[in-house]
């Protein structure tokens, strides 16, 4: 278990559009670019084994930059293919705010980060006291039908609040901007409300009637 005092001031960043990692979530990744293979090698030499997942975003005029908020994951699993690529798993530890990108000799991006705004991320799972599961699951079922998706409904119905809401946030086919909004939600209740809004908006786009 990583404690707040164990979190380093600088971490490597892995920019990946549409990829969302949340605290206590698990994100599988396929690493093959040389610069990120180097990042992985360097990561495994550190005590914390942290990689910061972050989304690129577009500025007015088409310029690209990184989002301000990301989430760091601890390298908890990896396997190497015969051609030198890696399949890895990151376990979400804590969100962070980028303070500055650092100049250096690594082929990948490193940044100085601030963990303080997300101190709640390290600890026990969150709960959502206002979560009314039956209507949420009904909305989710209609969303899955409209999107042509399938799942193990028994597993979803039995999942704890945080596991259910965070897993859906990470896996649903949402736009990168929507994924970022889910990442930046200050608590589990806000994340659930954001998910509901996004699913309802999608259903309206599909022409479903009866949404308020």
UniProtKB/TrEMBL annotation:
SUPFAM superfamilies recorded: PUA domain-like
Entries under InterPro entries matching the protein: Lon_prtase_N (IPR003111), Lon_prtase_N_sf (IPR046336), PUA-like_sf (IPR015947)
Recorded superkingdom: Bacteria
Domain (Lon N-terminal) ranges: 11-203
Protein name: LON peptidase substrate-binding domain-containing protein
Organism the protein comes from: Rhodobacter flavimaris
SMART domains in UniProt: LON (SM00464)
Pfam name, any one: LON_substr_bdg
Gene3D superfamilies: LON domain-like
